[in-house]
Specification:
The structure is a homotetramer. The first copy, chain A, is mainly alpha-helical. The first copy, chain A, has nine helices and no strands. Chains in contact: A-B, C-D. At the C-D interface, helix 6, helix 7, helix 8 and helix 9 of C face helix 6, helix 7, helix 8 and helix 9 of D. Chain C binds a DNA duplex through helix 2 and helix 3.
DNA sequence: TCGTAAGCGAGACGGTACGTCGAGTCTTGCT
DNA sequence: AGCAAGACTCGACGTACCGTCTCGCTTACGA
C-alpha cells in the first residue's frame, strides 16, 4: 500500500519494526476516531492509547493524515453480492454497507478524509486508490447486469454507480443524520426506475 | 443573518460595533479558506488579514466554527430557474451552480464543513438550516414538475433531489476531480430515465 | 479607526508583559536550580512551577540559558566593606560571599554557566558583564589599599583579585566540596604574605 | 583505569571486546567535546562518529558521564619538573600546562565537567580521583620546596597549591579569555611574594 | 571443526523535553 | 462600550536524545 511494510526491499540492518506496535497504533487511531472524531484525534492521544512513543508513530507515518488513511484502509468497503438480479444486488450491498458504516469508525473517518483531501495533495494521492477500490464491487454488479441485458450497453457505469450511491453521499454530507438501512429500498428503486417512471 | 446584528435589542451605551470590521472578517475568512482550506484557517490569520483584533472576532462569534458557517452562508447556492420543463430546469440550475462552485470559495469550504460537522455537534446545528435552504430551489422545481404532472405524486421529493445532486456529491467527495459542467446533461437524463430505461 | 495618531514608537501597543509572571519565572528557575541543579532544570518544569505557559517564557528568553543568566543576575555578589584595613575587608567580603553562596542557588548556577560559556558565544556575551560587575567591590577594596599605601603601586589589581579569589574558584571547580567560611582567614593571610613569607 | 579492561577476571567465552572500538569511542568523545562542549555531546553522536553501535558504548560505560570522565582521564595533566627551585618549578609546570591546555581538548572539556559535577553526584564521585591526581605534581613540587627550606613547614600545601593555580582557574571560568603563557611569570611571582610584598 | 556464547553495527523501542504554534481569554490605551 | 494590539494559559505539534531492546552478523574459545 504505502511505505509501511516493516522490511523495506533488501534493507535488513537494525531491529525490525514491531508489527505489534503498528497494529496497536492503527487500532488506537480507529478507536479515538470513533470516540471523538477527526478534530479530536491527537497523535499524542494515539501514542498513549497504543502504549507507544510518539517517535514510533512518526517513524511510520509522516503526519496524522497518512496514519488515518491507512487506518481507514483497514475498514471494510462494499462487499460484492451476486444474486442474479441487479435490484437485489444493490439493495443488499448498500444495506450491508450501511450496517457496517454505522457500527464502525467509517462514519467518523470518511467525511473527514473526503473534506480534507481538497486542500491536501498528499492526502489526495493517498486517498485516491483506496477510495476507488472501494467502489469496485458496485461497478462489478452493474457490469454483470449489463451482461445479463438488464442494463443498456450505452450506460456509463461510473455515472450509474454515482447515481446509486449519490443519495447516500448527500445524506452523509449534507444532512448529517444517521443513514438508515430502510432508506436503501426506495433509493435503489428510484435510481432504477428514474424520476419520471 | 444570525445573532450578529450590530445593535442588540434596545441596548445602546458605548460605541457601536463596526459593520466594516464585520465584513472584513467574513471576507478574510473566505479568502483564507480558498487559499488553504479548513485545516489551514486560523483565527489569528483571519484577524491579521482583516486588520482586526482577535477580540473583535470573538465578540461576534463564539468560536471558529460559527464564523466559518456564517461566511459560508454568504456564498451563493442554487438559483431557481423555471422553464416549464423539469429537465431544463435541473440542467440549468446544476450547470449554473457548478460554474459558481468552480469560481468561488464554495469548492474549498463546502467539503471541509461537511466533513467536520460529523464530529462537531455545534457545527452540525449551525450548518443544518443553511444547508437545507440551499436545496430549496431544487425541491421547488421538483414540486412544480409534480404539479404539472411531469412527476408522479407518489415520489418522495427529498429523495428525488438527493438522486439528482447525488452524482455531484460523489464526484466532489470521492473522486476529488474538478466538476465539469458537461457532466450535467447526462447526469440529469440518467436520473430522470433511471438506469433501466 | 485610528488614522494619524502618533504612536509612541515601539513601546506601548497591546497588553503589557506581566511583571508578576516575569518574577514568578525567575523565582521558579532559582528554586528548581537549587533543588535539582542545572541538568535537572527543564523549561517545562519552570513553567509549571511558576504557573505560567511555556510561551510566556520563550517570549522573554530565547532559551534556557539566558533565562538562567538573568536569574543568576538577581543573586547577590560581593558586597563592599570598608574597614580601613585590606585584610579585614577581604576576609569580611569573602566570608559574607561564602555564606550567601552556600544558602542560595549561586552554588548551583555559577559553575554551570562558567562551564557552558565556553561553547556558547551568546551565553558568553550575556555572562561577561554580569561576571565582571560582581568582581568590582573586590577591585575597589584593593584600590583603596593601594591609596592607603598598603599595596605597592606596581601591583596589577586584576591579578591581585584573581589571587585572592583563586583558591575559592579552585575549591569550587576542582574539589567540589562545599566551601567553608573558616577557609577564608588562612586563605587571605596566605595571599597577602605570599608562600615564601 | 576503571572497570573497562576488555578481559574480565577469568571469564572468557564469546567474542572479546574490541579494543579498537573502545579507543574510537574515547577519541570521538573528545572530538565532539571540543567541537560543541558538554551540552552538545550526545551518545548517538559519539556512536556515529566512532562508527560504533550505541550498545557498544553502553556495554562499557553505564552512561554518558563515566564515558566523558574516562575520556578526560586520558588527557595530560601537570607534568612534574624538578629544577631545585620552587619558582622555576612552578613557572615551568604551569607554562607547560597552559601550552598543553591550549592545544588539546582540555580547555573544552575541563570547564564543562567542572560545571556539571556540581549537580551530579555520580560525576562528582568519578571526577574526584582524576582531578586530584592531576594536582599531584604541583603538591610534590611544594613538598620538595618545604624540604629544602624554601617554604615554611607550617604552610598548608593544599591551600598553597590552590593559591598558585587560583588565578588560572579564575581566568578560565570567569574571564573566558584564552589563557596566555606570559601570565605565568607574574602570577607565580605574586603568589610567592604575596600582595603586600 | 564445529557449536556456543558473547560482541558487533544498525536501528526501532517507550519516554521526556524541546521550542513553536494556535485557541480562546484578558488587559492595555485609544476612539 | 468598541477597537487594534498583543500577552496570557493551555495543550498539541513534530524533533532529538536517552538508555534499552532486538535483528542478523562476526569472532574466538573449548569440546
Amino acid at each position: 500500500m504505502s511505505g509501511t511494510s516493516p522490511n523495506n526491499s533488501g534493507s535488513s540492518a537494525g531491529r525490525p519494526r514491531s508489527e505489534q506496535a503498528h497494529q496497536a497504533i492503527l487500532d488506537a487511531t480507529l478507536e479515538l476516531l470513533v470516540e471523538g472524531g477527526y478534530s479530536a484525534l491527537t497523535v499524542e492521544g494515539v501514542a498513549s492509547r497504543a502504549g507507544v512513543g510518539k517517535a514510533t508513530i512518526y517513524r511510520r507515518w509522516a503526519s496524522k493524515l497518512p496514519l488515518i488513511v491507512e487506518a481507514f484502509g483497514g475498514l471494510p468497503g462494499f462487499e460484492d453480492c451476486d444474486t442474479g438480479n441487479l435490484s437485489d444486488d444493490l439493495k443488499r450491498m448498500l444495506g450491508r454497507y450501511l450496517e457496517v458504516f454505522n457500527t464502525t469508525a467509517l462514519s467518523a473517518v470518511l467525511p473527514s478524509l473526503a473534506g480534507e483531501r481538497f486542500h491536501n495533495d498528499e492526502l489526495s494521492t493517498l486517498f485516491e486508490p483506496v477510495s476507488m477500490s472501494r467502489r469496485r464491487p458496485l461497478i462489478d454488479a452493474l457490469e454483470r447486469a449489463q451482461e445479463r441485458g438488464e442494463l443498456s450497453r450505452e450506460i456509463d457505469l461510473e455515472l450509474a454507480a454515482d447515481l446509486v450511491v449519490g443519495p447516500i453521499a448527500v445524506a452523509l454530507f449534507f444532512k448529517g443524520g444517521r443513514l438508515k438501512p430502510e432508506m436503501v429500498g426506495p433509493m435503489v428503486d428510484l435510481a432504477l426506475r428514474g424520476l419520471r417512471a
